[in-house]
Amino acid sequence: MATTTQTAAPHWAHVRVQPNWLVRLFDWKPLLIVVCLLPAVGLLMVFLTYPLGLGIWLAFTDTTIGKSGQWVGLENFEYLMGDPQFWQAVFYSVFYTTVATVGKFGLGLWLALLLNNHVPFKTILRAIILLPWITPTVLSAIAFWWIYDPQFSIISYVFVDALGVRDTYFDFLGSAWPARWSLIAANIWRGIPFVAISLLAGLQTISPSLYEAALLDGSTAWQRFRYITFPLLLPILAIVMTFSIIFTFTDFQLVYAITRGGPVNSTHLMATLAFQRGIPGGALAEGAAIAVAMIPFLVFATLFSYFALARRKWQQGEGND
Amino acid sequence: MTDIAAKTAESAEPKATATVVPEEMAWDSRAKRVVLLYVPLACFVIILLFPFYWMAITSFKPNAELYNYKTYNPFWIAQPTLDHIKHLLFNTAYPQWIFTTMWVAVAATFLSLFSSVLAAYAIQRLRFKGSQYVGLAIYLAYLVPPSILFIPLATMVYRLGLFDTPLALILVYPTFLVPFCTWLLIGYFKSIPYELEECALIDGATRLQILWKITLPLAVPGIISAGIFSFTLSWNEFIYALAFIQSSESKTVPVAILTELVSGDVYQWGALMAGSLMGSLPVAIFYSFFVDYYVSSLTGAVKE
Asked: Is residue B20 domain-shared with residue B160, that is, in the same domain?
């Protein structure tokens, strides 16, 4: 045995072709790590980290389009503090996020629980349900705009002409509160699929034996939901909710497509207000200040949903990996 | 409730009261199932799909029917027409917009896939000091929403001389694509046994050979789902395209429909809906081919 290895080893080493210096250089681990990380980290540094810093800097200057600004300290924020339109946008952003999140998660959880039953055509059903989420938001928003049309709204047609429940057509987008609720409804419509499909994935990881044990103990359906389904769903719920809150709060497309902030600026979210002041309005610094004012809300929402919900993870004996 | 639990629930309940009125119980549980399961499910499906139905039906309706609910039933088309689609294709720059969007989405997808595959490989397989923190930082980058970044990015794009070019979008889209793809691929690489790579190392393969010949072929499903995600996200992107592009011919579909087709006080609903329908179709077709990858990666990414 020992002799064969001794004779085989030099032969094997001889066959192996010595790679050239370039190949050896790229096999050197530190360099390889740098080369592999460079495209991703470089792109993110240049187009994400730098603009984030630049945005915060812009918020403290008086930059407009075509004029590089001077440092003005807190002037932009002081101006915004006294601007009722800004406060209205803050109010509507918080209101929109709260109501839409509650709606999305309530209905999404319900849909997930329904889909978790044994139903025919489950795969097709799941695919159909994801459609609102994958189609471009602006395009489905335009469809909602048409559904909310003051004269030719199909919902008005159904309620007034077909069912005869109402005498007048709905005025969906004509005045402040109806417009606000209409936008929230469209946002919930768009958000349900993602929540439902993610929570469905969470539901399917819950072991059936837990339900069997609970059934043997004589539990009611509500008790099974409250003490088994819900606690085991919390970790996924926390992640999905963090994402949902962040992207609902900073939503832009839906409002811009349907109302552009109108009527009379009543449906401006902070993002649409920042856009309107910054790009068409030309006041880049003011737009940046409004965008920067979103950051504390986002940090708070993230920390809240993460710590309020996700800290339970260790209680279930799971690692943090 | 899971299937097994549901079955046990169904079989357990009649047993408890089997001595009293079994037929009635069986009927009762079936009625209950219809009321509690099928009716709400049908409502959900109808509400989730109705806007698409409405979009489709509007784009084939002639204008006479479109604005006359008294004589025509709005839920159906009496005389379908292709006028709106013809108008879009021949009187507007719609084909050009589709082409621009396609080019931007494909290029941004390839750019982000290339960088995220390498980054995910470095973080998950080359295991260096602090690799976890790099992974965490890339993940956190996903939480920075475009609404905060578009104003400083617009000034940057302007100074780089990229304003009004699709190249600006191709370079900016990876900011939200790379974090997501990297995150997804790290999870996917984790599921590939490390022993395979060790064997190749012992056989004298270089790290790059391992990546190219062993890890990548095994990671194809993960790369495909990351690609689908990137393509749909780039296709759907709106705020950057709205802020960076001004000239009509280099606009992407979502922006162009909203800014070019909506003109004046009279909205051409037929053309708008036809444009939205055709703008959604590429994503929907793409998605229907890969729906299994899509659902599994979506749910997998959430589980991670």
From this structure: no
* Parent domain of B24: 3-59
For residue B91, give both structure tokens. 């009187």
What residues of chain B lie within 8 A of the CB of A44, using their CB? 138, 141, 174-175, 178-179
The rounded distance, in Å, linking the Cα atoms of B35 and B52 is: 26
Indicate the length of chain B as a whole number: 304
User: Residue B215 — very low, low, confident or very high, per pLDDT cuts 50/70/90?
Assistant: confident
Long-range CB contacts for residues A114-118, cutoff 8 Å, separation at least 24: A114/B37, A114/B40, A114/B41, A114/B44, A115/A196, A115/A200, A115/B41, A116/A200, A116/A203, A116/A204, A116/B1, A116/B2, A117/B1, A117/B3, A117/B6, A117/B37, A118/B3, A118/B6, A118/B7
Give residue for tokens 């540094």. Answer: A45
Cβ contacts (< 8 Å) between B9 and chain A: which residues?
211, 215
Distance from CA of residue B258 to its chain's centroid? 20
Shared domain for B97 and B202, answered yes or no, is yes
Say how far apart CA B271 and CA B30 lie, in whole Å.
46
In tens, the pLDDT along A53-68 reads 999 999 998 888 877 7
Q: Is A32 in Cβ contact with B279 (below 8 Å)?
A: no
In angstroms, the CA A287 to CA A275 distance is 6
Residue B191 lies in a domain: yes
Q: Write phi, then psi, for A61 (nearest 5 degrees).
A: -120, 180
Residues 281..300 of A with a Cβ closer than 8 Å to B: which? 284, 287-288, 291-292, 294-295, 298
Q: Both tokens of residue B166?
A: 């699709």
Whether residues A295 and B4 touch (CB distance < 8 A) is answered with no
Is the pLDDT score of B15 beyond 50? no
B225 close to B231: Cβ distance less than 8 angstroms? no
Contact flag A131-B69 (C-beta cutoff 8 Å): no
pLDDT at B129: 83
Selecting from B114, B115, B279 the residue whose C-beta is nearest the C-beta of A139 gives B279
Instruction: Please answer yes or no on whether B45 and A130 come within 8 Å at the CB atom.
Output: no
Query: Which CATH number goes with the domain that contains B106?
Result: 1.10.3720.10
Kindly report the CA angle at A251 between A247 and A253, in degrees rounded to 5? 130
Domain count, chain B: 2
Instruction: Judge if B138 and B272 occupy the same domain.
Output: yes
Task: With a cut of 50, list the residues of chain A below it in pLDDT.
Answer: 1-5, 8, 313-321
Q: What does the alpha-carbon distance between residue A230 and residue A232 come to, in Å, rounded to a whole number?
A: 6
CB-nearest to B151 from A138, A204, A287 is A287
Q: Are residues B282 and B204 in the same domain?
A: yes
| For A240, nearest residue in chain B (alpha carbons) | B302
Contact status, residue B234 vs residue B181, Cβ threshold 8 Å:
no
Give the per-residue pLDDT at A11: 53
Q: For B123-172, what is each residue's pLDDT tens digit?
A: 888 878 888 888 888 888 888 889 999 999 999 998 888 888 999 999 99
Q: What 3-state DSSP class applies to A119?
A: coil
- Is the CB of residue A260 less than 8 Å away from at least one CB of chain B? no
What are B153's two structure tokens?
């990015």
Q: How far apart are CA A63 and CA A70, in angstroms?
A: 7
Residue ranges of domains in chain A, CATH in brackets: 2-58 (no CATH), 83-313 (1.10.3720.10)
- Could you give the dihedral angle defined by the CA atoms of residues A250, A252, A254 and A258, in that order, rounded to the nearest 10 degrees? 140
